Amino acid sequence: MRNFTFQNATKVEFGKESYKKLPEQLKKDGIDKILMVYGRSSIKKIGLYDTLIESLNAAGIKVNEISGVQPNPRLSLVKEGLKKFKETKSQAILAVGGGSVIDTSKAISAGYYYDGDIWDLFAKKAPVKEGLPIYTILTLSATGSEMNGNAVITNEEAQQKWDISSKALYPVVTYISPELQYSLPKSQTINGAVDAISHVMEFYFDTTPRTEIQDALAEGIIKTVIKATETLIEDPEDYQCRAALAWGATLALNGLLATGKQGGDWSSHMIEHALSAVTDVAHGKGLAIVFPAFLEFSKDKIMDKLDRFAEKIFGIDTGSKGYDSDLAIKALKDWYKKIGQPVKLKEIGLEEEKIEVIADNAAQIAPFGQIQDMDKKKILEVLKIAYK
Amino acid sequence: MRNFTFQNATKVEFGKESYKKLPEQLKKDGIDKILMVYGRSSIKKIGLYDTLIESLNAAGIKVNEISGVQPNPRLSLVKEGLKKFKETKSQAILAVGGGSVIDTSKAISAGYYYDGDIWDLFAKKAPVKEGLPIYTILTLSATGSEMNGNAVITNEEAQQKWDISSKALYPVVTYISPELQYSLPKSQTINGAVDAISHVMEFYFDTTPRTEIQDALAEGIIKTVIKATETLIEDPEDYQCRAALAWGATLALNGLLATGKQGGDWSSHMIEHALSAVTDVAHGKGLAIVFPAFLEFSKDKIMDKLDRFAEKIFGIDTGSKGYDSDLAIKALKDWYKKIGQPVKLKEIGLEEEKIEVIADNAAQIAPFGQIQDMDKKKILEVLKIAYK
């Protein structure tokens, strides 16, 4: 275990209809004008939009809006949102949606306090120093963005999907009401679960020695998410499984699993971001393809951990079968297949020549990775494994 | 999983010599006069006292002191500390020690903002509304007080060991430097581990259904603490085991395991507090005696959980042996015996007649408990099991 600093002041209001506490919270915090950020029609379909507008107006809170956030959220909308925030003289942001909506809100928040081009912050040309108060109502469990200071945005012109991370971007209060996710398309629930599991794995396979406690917590979260996801595929309205998946996804990336580690690996995420930037594939699908390929590429360096993973997550008696790191990777891929995820680039219709483009894209921010320094050549090898 | 609110803003600085960041932090927070609270000689023996005084003075921070905090910390010293805090016009409290020192500091903090008798707050005659800024340097991992808003104080005149709990009492920053615990007497390390495990068990045996994720985290923490403790008995200077035990003890009671539960059971703690109030036995020893007895008394109501506990913590194949909740309790007691803890009241020299006094003492705050409502009669039955 390495030295670490841990602090996460976000307040989580978790449970059925917990979001109904929002107007009271905003009033307590002295906020009477907000910019609400959301996606398209889904929050209207489930009645959440009307409930919120009505209750916020009743509490005397003026709601301005910006909508149209898409998966792999775009820089252009961030800029529009920032303009709107300034024009309407809003005091805080209310993000109603999943990770894309929350990340868009965080980017607006960071941009508000930066005079230059927002993309400078993502290109790490300038640090994020301050942020606006952000309140989130989560409608899709996946990214963990509801309880951390990270945001990933796609610059569609430059085909760059890059991130920012700052203490200043943690939401003030996050409302997680699992029942809001009952009507999600099955694929979104599954993509979210794969994203959450991938976050846990980024820390789990970090090679920092002697992180027994973090590894045990990681295994607990992955196993719970796996079980919950399997049930939700059959019964999307199982409240307890929605709750388990939701809380698991939040804990996966709220800093807890990072404690004592060397930051996590994140190579799979970096490569997947390039894949999404080029092809617009859903992040959860991209990860189901890239992560096992990355593990395959790195297996010699993480033998022990793969062995433990096979045993603890999938109950494989690695002892009696001898030392075989492929068991873990095969079990993970089999589970992804079982829940309907692609595990090969071919399956999402990618042409083989595109691999080079994706590797170039990812290499823009190379070297990255904790397990090893990933450069273009290595990224290409991972993508080749992912293609085959 | 039940609805919950989770928030814990305490900043944890974890690692070798992390406490050296304290002067800089205090200056950043605009604090130049503190009241330092500590126990007796141990922080002087390990050189921590001199290092702190020197570095704080060098940073221009005036240090006032109150020392002499004992295990089962006393109300009289809290009152002395409060007087000193006011006299010296300190701006914040620096707690250097274990749970007793931190709890004393929290009680001073709560008392500062209350005009009446401090004990009113513990008797729940008045709520804790405000608190002073508290900084802690942890030298004994056990109570988890370094990352929560709880404090337990003994009113020695009334022989009452009672608690307060408030959002206002969370430390601002906590420094956990595992190497500060190298020279602890073996018994203190062991008592601390038993306390930490007991906190986890208070939540684990809470009967709220469908808390898979919390239970998995709980098992991860208990298993890690058990392993670390066994090594530390042999090699008290194993840094990684000190770190695992320390972080496990903090996570055991920082709110994480409480999420979705009905508050935990806490009967064992309430009964042990009465035992300590009457006999002054160390909390960790008292818990090693009371907790298994309480589980024995409650076993019909927590059969499934005991079964799971036996399997997950002690690797007992309960399936093949049939359903037998005694296996878990026996395994727990065996482990306590193995690490040298008493598991019977007889072993600490208690006279049987005293059981009635302890039950009366505990019954002052009855009914308590989540598994069942504990009244005097039931408390007495637990104590009888613990005696035999």
Automatic annotation (TrEMBL), chains A, B:
Domain Alcohol dehydrogenase iron-type/glycerol dehydrogenase GldA: 10-176
One Pfam short name: Fe-ADH
PROSITE patterns: ADH_IRON_2 (PS00060)
One GO CC annotation: cytosol
Domain Fe-containing alcohol dehydrogenase-like C-terminal: 189-387
Tagged with keyword Oxidoreductase: yes
Record keywords, A-Z: Oxidoreductase
GO molecular function: alcohol dehydrogenase (NADP+) activity; butanol dehydrogenase (NAD+) activity; metal ion binding; methylglyoxal reductase (NADPH) (acetol producing) activity
Protein name: Iron-containing alcohol dehydrogenase
